Amino acid sequence: MEIREKGYRHWEGQLQTSHLNWLPIARNGVKAVFKKKFAKLVFSLSASTFFVFLAAVYVSTKPELKILSELVRLLKSDAELFNTFYTNGFLTFMLVILTIFSGADLISADLKFKAFPLYFARPLSRGDYLKGKFSIVLFYLLSFTLVPGILLLLFKMLFTGSLAVSPLLLLAILVFPVIECTCLASLTLALSILSPNTKFIQIAIFLVYMFSHSLAQILKEIFKSDYFFLVSLQGNIQQLGSFLFGVKPAYAYPAWLSLLLPLVISVLAVWFLTRRIRKAEAGA
Amino acid sequence: MKEMIKLENISFSYGAVAAIRNVSLALPAGVFGLLGPNGAGKTTLMKLLLGFLLPDSGQGEIMGQELAVKQKSLRRGIGYMPESDCLIAGLDAVSLTAYLGELSGMPRQEAMKRAHDVLYYVGLEESRYRLVDGYSTGMKQRLKLAQALVHDPKLLLLDEPTSGMDPNGRTEMLELIQDISKKESMNIIISSHLLPDIESTCRQVVIMNKGRVVAEESITGLKKDNFNVYEIKVVGDQAPFFAELQSRHCRIEEKDRALFNVLLPGDVAPAVLFQAARQNGVQIRHFRQSRTSLEDAFMDVIREADGN
Q1: Residue A73 pLDDT grade (very low, low, confident, very high; cuts 50, 70, 90)
Q2: What is the pLDDT of residue B293?
Q3: Which of A82, A248, B182, B286 has its CB surrounded by the most CB atoms within 10 Å?
Q4: Cα atoms in the 13 Å half-sphere on the side-chain side of B13
């Protein structure tokens, strides 16, 4: 073969140094998830909760729709409304589907295709790599929790014509999805690094969701203690919601434990991920 | 001249197994071949240079930057073509190359433009929009070279660059490496077990064995310093003839029936061959000076190192 006419040519530009060098990973990952088959279906289903609650908020703020507002009586308290929005079973289920959809293959595909040397031969630390991957899952989870939560609040203000909002409620609206999604995202990534087989990871995430709650229910029946709901993903989400929104706890155990647990899980997951990636990097 | 790579007493162990033992190297700018049998420590040395592994002891500098301390800024100037069949799934070649360019610190648009350039350069211009998952081994090798070049590194580390390629592809890859090596500001280290690849692309070699550097010199020097090779065809009783040659520290290697390579130490004149033949009643029917191959020199260095 002839060497391409002009031979090798240098690049005249200047490499940039940035603390955001994980951003291309995030951007590329977000785009890749969006292009996946069934993406629109998953996103539509995940967003459907928001539209149902939006309709409910509208109905509850209109006295002329008295008959319908009886149906959404529970939502008249703002704290109850947002707690129910964030912790309802369907949204939680869709968040698990979203983590499977957007996060299961994030690291496992890199393991399968031995991509670590390509990443780590760049000026990229293990932390940058993790930040990039983490932000992909977080982007999608927050898009269907925090963003609709804020929109719901704005619409409620619009419908009632009042800008009054309790600072604690506002804080809870912002903090709850962040804690919930951080925990889900870190757990997903920690599972994603376990195997190069994405199907295995997808099943593992689903099993954690399904069986953690079933196990908690069985243990509760046997030992008659609500503390076993600490092992349940759904249970913790409900208890965390009741703690942050100041509503009646779903289970009879200190609700702050459900605040502590996601943080502990996240820290452990990041520690585990860092160790595994260091190992993978050395073996790259 | 300021060294491109300077290592001082670098050691590294995988648990109880010492992979690199007190390696000291001072490589100036240029193109170097990294040779050694399996398990010699070549790949471990490359990983240490890239900062994938941290040395247990010793220190070093690459392009004036301290090894294991300035890893991020070091990697900015290094292009690495791994041996393993690695890729990022779900991307086409342009997106993958541009993506990796961006991760190296290139502005997004520049990375995309440069990705097209390097893919054209390595001969993937027609398949650059195809998903890399479906690439053949040869195409993947070219792609790995393209991604190593995208940010225009000062130091290029190529680990088995022709691995798995067909003869044509291999020749093309070697031509590309030769072309890149012509650029003065480009330094290259090629690790390969294929000695002809090293011979055709490098002038200097570093030979490793059992975690140590056992030779570090030019290929011509390595060949000259050791022995001269003569190809001979012998008729008659070969045993006493060869015994006499061996007593004079010559080595004999059978090439074919009655055709041998005789390796004479540098200080032994070829006339010795004819004297020994006459004394032992054998006829030399064919006599030709052979080019000393790098393989011969390599084997000699390894044998010598093993002997020590």
Answers
A1: low
A2: 64
A3: A82
A4: 6
- Of B49, B146, B248, B279, nearest to A8 by C-alpha is B146
Q: What is the distance between the alpha carbons of residues A276 and A12, in angstroms, rounded to a whole number?
A: 37
> What does the block give as tokens for B143?
């792609």
| Residue A127 to residue A16: CA distance in whole angstroms | 19
Cβ neighbour number for residue A7 with a 10 Å cutoff: 12
Q: Is B50 at the interface with chain A, CB within 8 A?
A: yes
Q: At what angle do helices A78-87 and A89-103 cross, to 10 degrees?
A: 40
Q: pLDDT digit string (tens) for B103-128?
A: 999 999 999 999 999 999 999 989 99
Length of chain A measured in residues: 284
Predicted confidence (pLDDT) per residue in B218-253, tens digit: 887 776 656 778 889 988 888 899 999 888 888 887
List all residues 6 or more positions away from B126 whose beta carbon is below 8 Å from its beta carbon: none
Are the Cβ atoms of A118 and B82 closer than 8 angstroms? yes
**Concatenated DSSP letters for A212-261?**
HHHHHHHHHHHH--GGGGGG-HHHHHHHHHHHHHT---SSSS-TTHHHHH
Chain A residue closest in CA terms to B177: A8
Find where tokens 């929009």 sit.
B129
Distance, in Å, from the CA atom of B69 to the CA atom of B74, rounded to the nearest integer, reads 9
**Nearest by Cα to B79 from B160, B155, B192:** B155
| Tokens describing residue A212 | 């953690």
Backbone angles phi, psi at B14, to 5 degrees: -95, 95
- Joined together, the tokens standing for residue A196 give 């190069």
Q: According to the model, what pLDDT value does residue A1 have?
A: 47
What span, in angstroms and rounded, lies between the C-alpha atoms of B109 and A273?
Answer: 32
Nearest CA in chain B to A3: B176
Question: What's the CA gap between A190 and B171, in Å, rounded?
Answer: 44
Between helices A198-223 and A105-112, what is the axis angle to 10°?
140
From the list A141, A23, A189, A156, the residue with the least C-alpha distance to A82 is A156
Kindly identify which residue of chain B lies nearest to residue A120, measuring between CA atoms. B52
CA distances from B7 to B29, B185, B216, B231 (A): 14, 21, 13, 41
pTM of the model: 0.83
Can you tell me the ipTM of this complex?
A: 0.86
> Please, what sign has the CA dihedral across residues B144, B145, B148, B150?
negative
Distance (Å) from the C-alpha of residue B258 to the closest C-alpha of chain A? 40
Structure tokens at A44: 């539509």
Distance CA B244, CA B298 (A): 25
Q: ∠ CA A17-A20-A22 to the nearest 5 degrees?
A: 110
**Secondary structure letter of residue B84 according to DSSP:** S
Contact A282 B53 (CB under 8 A): yes
d(CA B75, CA B71): 6
Q: How many Å apart are CA A173 and CA B77, to the nearest integer?
A: 46
**pLDDT for A62 beyond 80:** no
The top-scoring range by mean pLDDT among A102-116, B39-53, B209-223 is A102-116
Q: Which one, of B52, B42, B46, B53, lies nearest residue B5 by Cα?
A: B46
CA end-to-end span of chain A, whole Å?
A: 32
